[in-house]
Write a structure and sequence with these properties.
InterPro entries: DUF5688. It holds the Pfam family DUF5688. By secondary structure, this protein is of the alpha+beta class. It is built from ten helices and 15 strands. It folds into three domains: about 80 residues, no CATH class; about 120 residues, no CATH class; about 80 residues, no CATH class. A hairpin with a 5-residue loop joins strand 13 and strand 14.
């Protein structure tokens, strides 16, 4: 009896973790680092020889099974793609927990340019279980890129799924990273967090790499309250700049969208003075809206000076 081919081979799968989590894993776990992430290999079921539930494969197990690492990795990838094939579904379908449709089942291009939300798609599997791994499968990424007609921006929203959109459509990289970090801090359990980085898949070179994300530019803050105070309050998305109630009242008629911020990380747009008075927490203005407001104020001042000359 060959222990590996008769029992182990068909129970191997590949998963992706944040590389920092390797420090928390048992020693000698077989892994392969890719940027800030690490591919690991899992044996499903019960390991009778080691008398424990199966977990991530270790070098000790590989030696015991009499198989080389490259063969094991290849078999794990084959099982993952065949037994847990990837699916590409609309972001709205994920919100409805509907994993029935799969855009990868045909070669038809997807419709883009409708709205930022509808231009985003989720890559996972039918179980929505450790589905972020497919960002490392070139064949899957090529299919997605062909359907979307260009290079891909990939948001690793958790170990279970990744969100993709065409580089020529959707939000900019800075906003995408802000969103991923906000989700990491407010919506996920620690073990589900994959990365705070944004990835880019180049369709022509078949390469996956971390996207270069520009730092937030230094701007005049709209109020005396700091970002750290907002984070401590419970709202952590850095795309929002905090306001006190008094400052929100001052900006209400300034033609800039304002929001009520909540301690659980949620927000809601406000429209009236009563909306402000009835809320006892913090308020906010989106960074991009505030920058546009500052630029318009500066332009108005420039125009006024020009007219006086």
């Amino acid at each position: 009896m060959n222990l590996y081919t008769d029992d182990i081979k068909e129970r191997l799968f590949v998963e992706v973790y944040n590389a920092k989590k390797l420090e928390e894993l048992p020693k000698n776990v077989l892994y392969e680092c890719r940027e800030d992430l690490a591919l690991v290999y899992r044996l499903s079921g019960y390991d009778a020889d080691f008398k424990r539930d199966c977990d991530l494969v270790t070098e000790e197990q590989i030696e015991h099974w009499g198989v080389d690492a490259d063969t094991l990795k290849s078999d794990a990838w084959t099982n993952t793609m065949v037994k847990r094939p990837p699916i590409m579904i609309d972001l709205l379908d994920v919100c409805r927990a509907d994993f029935g449709r799969n855009h990868l089942e045909n070669d038809n291009p997807v419709s883009l340019g409708i709205s930022p939300l509808l231009d985003m798609f989720v890559i996972t599997n039918r179980m929505n279980d450790n589905g972020a791994i497919y960002m490392f499968d070139d064949e899957t990424m090529q299919k997605v890129a062909n359907k979307m007609g260009g290079n891909l921006i990939i948001m690793p929203s958790s170990v279970h799924e990744s969100i993709v959109y065409c580089e020529e459509h959707g939000m900019d990289i800075r906003k995408a990273k802000d969103l991923v970090n906000s989700v990491n801090q407010t919506k996920l359990r620690e073990e589900e967090i994959l990365s705070g980085e944004i990835y880019r898949y180049d369709k022509d070179s078949h390469t996956l790499s971390k996207a270069q994300v520009p730092e937030h530019e230094e701007i005049l803050m709209p109020d005396k309250i700091s970002m750290e105070e907002m984070h401590t309050y419970g709202y952590v998305w850095d795309g929002m700049l905090p306001l006190t109630k008094e400052r929100a009242m001052e900006l209400l008629d300034a033609d800039v969208p304002l929001f009520k911020l909540y301690e659980d990380g949620a927000d809601a747009m406000l429209d009236t003075k009563e909306d402000i008075l009835s809320h006892d927490g913090l308020f906010g203005v989106e960074r991009d809206s505030w920058i546009n407001y500052l630029e318009s104020q500066s332009q108005n001042e420039t125009n006024g000076m020009t007219q006086e000359m």
